[in-house]
Amino acid sequence: MEQAITIAVYIHAFFGGLGLITGIGSMAVTKGGKLHKRMGKIFALSMIMSCIIIIPIAWMPGHESLFLFLISLFTIYLVLIGRRALTFKSRKKLKATSIDLGISFSMMVFSIFMLGYGTYGFFAPVPDNILYMIFGGLGLFLTIKNFLFYKKFKTNKVAWLLAHLTHMIAGMIASITAFIVAGLKLWTITAWVLPSVIGTVFIIYWRLKTQGRINKARI
Fold first, then answer.
1. What is the mean pLDDT of the chain?
2. Would residue 90 be called left, alpha or beta, if left means φ above 0 and alpha means ψ between -120 and 50 degrees?
3. Domain ranges, residue 127
4. Do 72 and 54 meet the contact criterion of CB atoms below 8 Å apart?
5. Virtual torsion, Cα 136, 141, 143, 147, nearest 10 deg
6. Angle CA(115)–CA(77)–CA(138) in degrees, nearest 5?
7. In this structure, which long-range contacts are made by residues 36-43, counting pairs with CB atoms below 8 Å and at least 24 apart in sequence?
8. Cα 19 to the chain's mean position, in Å?
9. Tens of pLDDT along 82-122?
C-alpha cells in the first residue's frame, strides 16, 4: 500500500509541475491567443488531476491531512470557475447553470467549515487554525463574488474576463504555493500566505487594467 501511495504522490507531483510550467507559460504569452488557450487547458487539467490524486491520500493512515484535503478542493474550485467563466462570454448564455451554481455553493460550504474550524482552533488544539481561517475567508469572499457575478454578468461586458483572470491567477498561486510548501518543504504560515498576498496584488493589477483604470495594453 505504501508503495502505491508513493507512486501516486510522484504522479501528483508530475501533474503539479506540469501545471506550474504551463500556468507560467499561459501568463507569459499573448492573452487570448492559441498558445495561451492551449496552455490554459493543460494547466487546468493538470491542476485538477494533481488535486484529485492527492485527495484520497489525505485520508490514508499516516498521511491524514484535513487541510491538504480542503486546499485541494479549493484549488479544483478555482480552476473550474476560472474555466467556466469563459462560457459567460457567449451572448447566448442567459444565466448561470446548475453546474456553475453547484461548484460555487459547494465551495461556500467548505469555506464556512474552514472558517468555523479555524475559529474552533482558538479554543482547542487545531494545527494551522490561522490558515483555515485565511483560506476559508478567501473562499467565502470568492464564492459570494461568484453569485454576484451570476446575477450581473449580462450588464458588464468584461465581467466574464474579470472572473476568468481572478480565478485562474488564483489557481496559479495555488500551484506556486504547492511547489514552495511541498517541493521545498517549507510548511510555514509565511510560505502558505505570501504567494497569495503577492498574487492578490497581481490580480488587482489585471482587474484594473481590464476595466481600463490603468493604461490599456493588449491582454
1. 90
2. beta
3. 2-210
4. yes
5. 160
6. 35
7. 40/83, 40/168, 42/18, 43/19, 43/79, 43/168, 43/171, 43/172, 43/175
8. 12
9. 999 999 988 778 899 999 999 999 999 999 999 999 999 99
In a domain, 217, yes or no: no
Q: Is residue 216 part of a domain?
A: no
Find the DSSP H helices in 121-188: 129-152, 159-178
Residues written for the chain: 219
Cell digits of residue 42: 493543460
The H helix count followed by the E strand count for the chain is: 7, 0
Look-up of cell digits 474550485? 77
47-65, pLDDT tens digit by residue?
999 999 999 999 998 888 8
Examine residue 219 and state whether it is found in any structural domain, yes or no. no
- Distance from CA of residue 67 to its chain's centroid? 15
Q: What is the dihedral of CA 203, 204, 209, 215, to 10 degrees?
A: -130
- Give the confidence band of 46 by pLDDT, cuts at 50, 70, 90: very high
Spatial separation of the C-alpha atoms in residues 9 and 80, rounded to whole Å = 22
Hey, how many other C-beta atoms are within 10 angstroms of the C-beta on 56? 12
What is the distance between the alpha carbons of residues 28 and 183, in angstroms, rounded to a whole number? 23
Assess if residue 146 is contained within a domain.
yes
Total count of domains within the chain = 1
Termini Cα distance of the chain: 47
Residue type, 49: M
CA gap 147, 178 in Å, rounded: 28
Which residue is associated with the grid cell 487570448? Answer: 32
